[in-house]
Specification:
With about 90 residues, the protein is mainly α. It contains 5 helices and no strands. It has one domain. α1 crosses α2.
């Protein structure tokens, strides 16, 4: 058994490494992996790595990277904003 998330089957990162990258200073690398999580991870897994506040603060740079999941995340983001859950 590996500590690598299923959605990172093609990457050499385990869960701890991924969390460090997401919290790191290289914003481009962080956004690359955040978008990959949003595209590939199961909805329940997303929240192990990202928060709604992270999505809100990086939304404009993330949305273009969401591929086939863009509509899903746009719906959630706009609903959360409409209900005042994120700013």
């Amino acid at each position: 058994m590996t500590d690598r998330p299923d959605f990172l089957w093609d990457e050499p990162l385990n869960r701890g490494d991924l969390k460090k990258v997401l919290a790191g200073e290289d914003e481009e690398e962080s956004l690359y992996y955040a978008a990959k999580i949003l595209r590939e991870a199961r909805f329940e897994e997303v929240w192990e790595y990202l928060s709604p506040a992270f999505l809100a603060s990086h939304w404009e740079r993330l949305r273009a990277r969401l591929g086939r999941k863009k509509g899903f995340w746009e719906f959630l983001y706009s609903t959360w904003r409409a209900h005042g859950l994120i700013h």
